[in-house]
Amino acid sequence: MVPDREAVQGSLELADHAKVWAEPAAGCLLPAARQVLERVGGGARLGLVVCGGNATTVDMIDWSHRFGLR
Question: How much is the pTM?
Fold first, then answer.
């Protein structure tokens, strides 16, 4: 399970680092993948399917402010 704050942070990271616009439903993939890597080891290979661009810029700004993210 990924808390909403981490899902929004994942969306922001995808936008900043991968230049991919994704809603928090897809943004939760990054923190979830980190949890998996902690359990199975850093040498594991994971494939992530990123989808969902239904969030607007205003949505992302609102969520970022709600969770104290930048």
Answer: 0.89
Cβ partners under 8 Å of residue 15, min gap 6: 21, 22, 60
* Nearest one of 1, 12, 16, 17 to 59, comparing CA atoms: 12
pLDDT, tens only, 39-50 = 999 899 999 999
Identify the pLDDT of residue 29.
96
* CA distance readout (Å), 15 to 12, 36, 61, 63, 70: 5, 22, 13, 14, 12
CA angle 32, 35, 45 (to 5 degrees): 85
